[in-house]
Specification:
heterodimer; A: 299 residues; alpha/beta; Transcription Regulator spoIIAA; 2 domains; five-stranded mixed sheet; 12 helices; elongated; B: 146 residues; alpha+beta; Heat Shock Protein 90; 31% strand; globular
Chain lengths: 299, 146
């Protein structure tokens, strides 16, 4: 059973490395503090960088202790995972590519290797070589852990952004006295169409609107579910005493709706937003005319 | 006889997010094959309907997309499969206006009208697999009119 005390149970290269790491922890941390990765991330004080370095050395020693130098899932890494992620993220923010971050991580190995060689130069050449190999593997695993952590951070960010994208605010725009419009962009799923319906109905009340225009120019696919959402929104607007016009029906969408067999006969539709606005103005009895030379102004 | 060219891409259908990805993938694949904008839109819409069926009625599954070629004509084949309860009465499921999920009941029948070839394999209790194929330019019509 491997012991936790320094110097306990030497023998395997991994344990030699563990003992070496514990013995030289301070020197390694000091040298790392001068490496770009630590120096540029921990800018407040050198002591902070050394502290961070010590934590990493400690984690490496624990991994070596468990004899799992090639295992990125080794329990020893858990303690520094968050710190490595922060360091990686800081470097990415500074504009470094993933490859550059990886090579900065790789630069941590030579100083440690030098110390190891100096420490074990009186050992047999084979045992030095074995220890050096174990250390190399261990540092490679550290690199892998850091990159893995950075990747999962990116994944989490992507997931958050996808959620945000689905919740993009749906603005209701007042086009004219009594006419409001909602430009729909992206996927119209149940959750978003609920948001659209609520904001639109509120706008109809607030603006005393008689016409509401739903513009679907920015909706890439109109399938039966999207059509159902549209029809429900139209019906709800109608219940509020306003008329709803769906605009932005592109030729490809129109053909698809016909083939799909959807009946939008009850919904007033127009090809473009301008057509829809013209229709609403017409119904309101408002006309837009070109300014006469005499200087007539709008209604 | 048509041959499948290239390895099929498999996309999981487990959530609403996956539906977005399915649509984007189909649109891109169709555009790369040279589908016209109308045909792209039709195929994407059909894929959207079928993927939603896979998710809502089949409890999730996957879509496999592959290129097919026949007599110099290229096409895109999409297979939606799930291991859900299957379809009891296929004729009724294909008829317009029939729904078991609170929708408009246009999904399956509508999707059939949007593609060139359409086959369903299903049995109660053993899942459903819907395979659709669309060609860049319409081939001699092998299917009966609907």
């Amino acid at each position: 059973m491997p012991q936790h005390e320094t110097g306990g149970a030497p023998g395997t290269p991994a344990h030699e490395v563990r003992d070496f790491l514990r013995r030289r922890s301070e020197e390694i941390a000091q040298r790392w503090a001068d490496e770009p990765l630590f120096r540029t991330v921990f800018t407040v004080s050198r002591e902070e960088a050394v502290e961070a370095g010590r934590a990493v050395v400690d984690a490496l020693a624990r991994v070596a202790d468990s004899q799992r130098v090639e295992d990125p899932d080794a329990a020893g890494f858990t303690a520094v995972r968050e710190q490595l992620a922060r360091m990686g993220a800081a470097r990415s923010r500074a504009g470094l590519s993933t490859t550059q971050v990886a090579s900065e991580l790789a630069a941590l190995r030579p100083p440690v290797d030098k110390l190891l060689v100096a420490d074990l130069e009186r050992e047999r050449p084979e045992s030095l070589r074995e220890c050096s190999t174990a250390l190399t593997v261990l540092m490679g695993t550290l690199r892998l852990v850091a990159m893995q952590t950075a990747l999962s951070e990116i994944q989490a960010l992507t997931d958050r952004q996808r959620l945000q994208l689905l919740e993009v605010a749906t603005p209701v725009i007042k086009l004219w006295d009594g006419i409001v419009a909602v430009p729909l962009i992206g996927t119209l799923d149940s959750a978003r169409s609920q948001v659209v319906m609520e904001t639109l109905l509120n706008a109809v009340v607030d603006q005393h609107a008689r016409f509401a225009i739903l513009d679907i120019t920015g909706v890439p696919t109109v399938d039966s579910l999207v059509a159902q959402h549209l029809m429900k929104t139209v019906a709800a607007v109608r219940l509020m005493g306003a008329e709803c016009v769906v605009s932005g029906i592109r030729p490809a969408i129109a053909q698809t709706i016909v083939h799909l067999g959807l009946d939008l006969g009850t919904v007033r539709t127009r090809a473009g937003l301008a057509d829809a606005l013209a229709h609403c103005l017409d119904e309101l009895g408002a006309n837009i005319v070109a300014a006469a030379p005499g200087g007539a102004d709008r209604k | 006889m048509d041959t499948a060219a290239g390895v099929g891409t498999r996309l999981p259908i487990r959530s609403d997010m996956d539906l977005v990805w399915v649509r984007q993938h189909v649109r891109q694949a169709a555009a790369e094959l040279g589908f016209s904008l109308v045909d792209q839109t039709k195929l994407v819409t059909a894929a959207s309907e079928l993927a939603r069926n896979t998710l809502v009625h089949g409890g999730g599954g996957e879509m496999e997309a592959s290129h097919v070629a026949a007599g110099g004509n290229r096409g895109l084949r999409l297979t939606f499969s799930d291991t859900g309860p299957g379809i009891d009465d296929l004729d009724r499921a294909l008829s317009d206006g029939y729904t078991s999920g609170g929708g408009l009941g246009m999904g399956l029948g509508g999707a059939r009208r949007l593609v060139h070839e359409f086959t369903v394999e299903t049995a109660p209790g053993s899942g459903t697999s819907v395979r659709v194929t669309s060609w860049v330019s319409r081939p001699p019509r092998p299917r009966e009119d609907v």
